[in-house]
Design a protein that fits this description.
Chain lengths: 345, 607
Amino acid sequence: MSNKAAGALTAKAKAMFGKRIRPEDYQAMLQKKTVAEVASYLKNDTYFNEVLAGINEKSIHRGQLEALIRQDLFQRFSSLMRYANSSKGGFYRYGIIENEIHQILNCIRSFESRDYMQFIEKMPTYLELQTSFKISDLAKVRTYDELLDVISHTDYAQIVRQFKPLHMEDFDFTGCESALRNYYFDTVLKIIESDFSGKEKEDLRDIFLTQIELENITKIYRLKKYFDTPSDRIKELISPVHLRFSKKDLDYIIDHCNADELFDYLAKSAYKNYTDNQRFIYIEYHTKKINYNINRKHLAFSNNPNIVLLSYMLLSETEVQNIVDIIEGIRYRIAPEKIERLLIY
Amino acid sequence: MSITKMKLVSISASEGNYEEMLKRCETSKYLHAENATSIVNEENGGRLLSIENIYSDYVNTLKNIGHSIGFEMKAKPTLEKTYTNEEIETFLKNVEEQFKVVSDSVESNSLTGDDEIALETLRLLDFTAMHDCHYISFGMGRLPIESVKKLNLIQDAKFITAKLHQTSQYQWIVYATSNTYARETKKMFDGLYLEEIKIPTIDSKKIIAQYEEELTNVYTYCEERNRLYSLHQYVSIFEDHYVVVGFVPEKDLDKFKTEFNGVDVSVDAHNTSDAPNLTPPTLLKNNWFFRPFEMFVTMYSLPAYRDMDPTVFVGITYCFLFGIMFGDLGQGFLLLLGGLFLEWKSKNKLAGIVGRVGITSMIFGFLFGSVFGNEEILIPVHRGLFNVHEKLINVMDGNFTMTLLISAVVIGAVLILITMVMNMAMHLKHKDWGELFFSQNGLAGFAFYGYLFVAIAGQFVFGFNILTPMWMIPFIGLPIVLFFFKEPLSHLIQGKSIKPHGGWGNFVLETFFEVFEILLSFVTNSMSYLRVGGFVLSHAGMMLVVMTLVEMTGNAGPVVFVIGNLFVMALEGLIVGIQTLRLEYYEMFSRYFEGGGKKFNLISSDN
């Protein structure tokens, strides 16, 4: 990437972040009584005005509103990519890979439950031109073999094939999901390893490894708290990477801590500077908040276009999730203060 | 160039003819009617015409019906049918019942323009027929474009769809399915975020078409009756006579009388002084050149009927002051052309003023030797015409600056003296002796200010000195005393007690500051005219900058020349226009103009 393009991307991404939803916007949305009012606020008072320009906010469907906001995230990514270097295109596919995995897992769920419509409803067809297989073909899949046919020419086929069950009721969904997530992280880390160097490589690794590690923590917590999963099984399901936790730390948590003790451990760990002791809600809130703070730091202090782009996109994802939480909270008449506790900003 | 002379008229008719009389009054091109409440009083035994206006309710009901079904009520130009109140009541009841069904089914308030387009396409299928189907269910609505793509992904679809309309975000579709799959299909479309629009149970357009003619006829009738009833406010009843009293321009009286030909009414004309309790309306009358300046006068206040119309004076002084401040032959010519063209095209009075000030701008531009900022082009002409070395008036000459500024103050002083004379003439007409003799804008003020003007001119220009006690006592001392004792002296002339309202102590204190303020205002008002000279310099300075830029920019010079001239014309023209208006209002109007007139309004303009 030329210096000019790098500067443009950095400036553009930082300027776009400057237009983010502010705490006062969240407060204003939390005071709304209906989804239509939130839609109207987003359309008239935030930077989502462009993507929501043609909508009829009075009657817009909640799902449609969420879909448009997610679509806007992808469009922002695409618009920033215009400034990015094509030689590093492999790295920028991280978002697409994540989405592809998500669609494969959703497809399996759909033919497992025979609820094909829900899968179609949520399918991001706007990604079709970017994906390595035709995601719309997944809509026609009714069996495991048909799925393997659709993704046969991709790396996913080999992973998914390993989990092919004799009967769908025996399917190891968690295992398959973990394997695909591991593939995602492996792929991205390999690209970082080969395409980048120096401080840039170090920062990109920091961002992704933090994500993996916090995902591991979440997984451990949930497996312990809700499924009472044995330690050996937990170790199989988590990604074998470490950043701020050593392998010894992680093994200690898995072997000796219960779900609540895990929080204490996290609060005293190297993540302590990024945690939010004021608002302890649930494990995802905690891990996402840590991730959010780390990305805010990267965005504020880095001038490297790849770091800025990546941290901007991850922060934007958090923002989109906040809006979705508000919309759903209002739809299901949850008290504003309860919704507010879920928001990360 | 004055205020139109009026005649007081009274038009009277019998009970059987008064409606026809009102109809003629309503269409009259000359009548300004007076409200009956100002005519009728206990002494003259008159009464008001008071009949409940039921047609106002009918009109509102019809408009509400129209609004709820999306039909615009419009009266026909001529009345085709008349109705009794019973007929109207029955008709309204009938349509209200019928259209209530329609408005319920249309839900017109919640539909967008695009929804209407989609419904219009769907109308081809016949709404009633769709609802009458026993085995097929229909649905329609807005489907997000993203969801439209997904329709093709659904295998074994149990429905068919048709596109009705599309925008960048949505496609409006209608779908049909068998009753067996209706619920499943609806759920599926919900999942695809279909925003459903209810298919109307009946076709409102058909019903509207059926009632349109009669609705319009009834509305036309009610509207006309309502209008006529609203004119009852002008009718007073004296015994059996229904009378409308008003004012008509004296010159149009005969034409006004002919408007009532063929109707059994009597039209009597009187002098305006015959009804001292009625204030005649003011209708300004000016020629083509000065008519646009009426706008400036009425913006301030309309002159009273018995006052003087200052439009001509405003026109002359406005053009004169603007011309001096915006003196440029070329730019003035453009103002003249542009202003007159816009006046002709749009009848805009401001454009008319722009056109007229263009003339004086050209005259002073010629005297200043300035054409589109070029200060040399007219030098040969000036040499030939005025036998001068360079130009007759060279505003950019440093030696001329002081002369220019003093001239501006002299112009201001002359205008102040003229406005004082106008003020005195006005008070003489009204026999308001106190204001005429003792006020700062009356004789005392004129003597004081005029003396100072002559004395200063004599001292510095003509070489005589009248700044001596012999002159100062009657022309400075005496006027100040008169300013001071204006209130008690006025009371004395009017034969009232000379003791001031708030007592002597309070009077002395208040009047001391008032007189101080009067003396100060003579100075500040005169200085205010310095701006005239200031803007001459400012205009010339701005054009100098433009011409310098033209020289600097080489080949792009002509473009800079045009843009620079247009820029200066727009900016300077606006500023000078506003400043001149300020001088008119603050320095001149405040000295002689009171306003407070009543506008001449044709009775027809009420409706």
